[in-house]
Structure formats: structure tokens, C-alpha cells
Amino acid sequence: MEKTFLMVKPDGVQRNLIGEIVARFEKKGFQLVGAKLMSIPVELAEKHYGEHKERPFFGELVDFITSGPVFAMVWQGENVIATARQMMGSTNPKDAAPGTIRGDFGLTVGKNVIHGSDSPASAEREIGLFFKESELVDYSKLINDWIY
Ligand code: RTP
Ligand code: MG
Predict the structure, then answer these.
(1) Whose C-alpha lies nearest to ligand 1, atom 4?
(2) Any known ligand binding at 57?
(3) What is the pTM of this model?
């Protein structure tokens, strides 16, 4: 099953949007397979955003993502990587469509509430940076015969 890494950024946590954001992915039908509230160490932030190292906003990006707790998650489902990106909306909230997370809650390009992996390679890399295999759950052995 395809998996992606999603993270409520410090602005989203500070604004009490964890529940709202989790609910959107639950209602869509995706499954949560890992989650933790955490503070990101600077070294992890620099690795996570490594592709932006040469960009002028890299310092601000690392300062912001390490400025307060984040809610890191792994979600699974068919086409979850691309669908989650659509549900998040454009990077800059001013361009994000209403109904998307950034369109509904984002303020500025820096404070855009949520991160999501942008490809299968990024998803694998980012899940590995934030989670151990033992922190991800398995739903395949769930007993379903009590529900009808
Ligand atoms: P993310 O990685 O956070 O899910 O966002 P994204 O793929 O939509 O955007 P990306 O290009 O990967 O940029 C990562 C984050 O950097 C901040 N950013 N600031 N000041 C700027 O011009 C600028 N451009 C990007 C945003 O917070 C973006 O989410
Ligand atoms: Mg990105």
C-alpha cells in the first residue's frame, strides 16, 4: 500500500488545527499508520529540507520548522501521495484553492500549515527520517467480524 509523510507545521499546531487536518484525511478514507507530536532537532530539519539548502529562504525554513512542536504522520492508501498534495493545495496559500487545507487555513508561504511528500522517493526518504519501522502499525490482521 502506498504511504506518504505528512506533517502539521508549528503554525498549524499552535492554531489547534491537528484535529481538523487529521479528520480530513480520515474522512477521505486514508489510514493513519504512524503519528507523533515532536520538536524537530535542527539537524533533522536540515536533512528533511536538504533539497532547498541553496535557496535564500533555507535558514528561515529551518528556523520556522524547529520553532515549535509539529505533528508528524504517516498515512497510507491508494494514490495517497498525489491525493494528499491535492488536498493540501498550492504551496503559497494565496494561490491555494478554497476547500484545500492551505486554501482554508494558510496565511503566508512560510506559514502554510502542512507539509506533504511530493513523490514516492521523497515519501520513502521522509518516512525513514522521522519514523522507525516499529513505530508504524499494521491493520492487515484486524478482526472485522464484529462489525456489520
Ligand atoms: P512542503 O515541502 O512544505 O510540503 O511544501 P511544498 O512541497 O509545497 O513546497 P517546497 O517547494 O518543497 O518548499 C518547502 C517550503 O518552503 C517554504 N517556501 N518558502 N519564501 C519562499 O519563497 C518560499 N518558498 C517555499 C514553504 O513553507 C514551503 O512549504
Ligand atoms: Mg516540498
Answers:
(1) 115
(2) yes
(3) 0.96
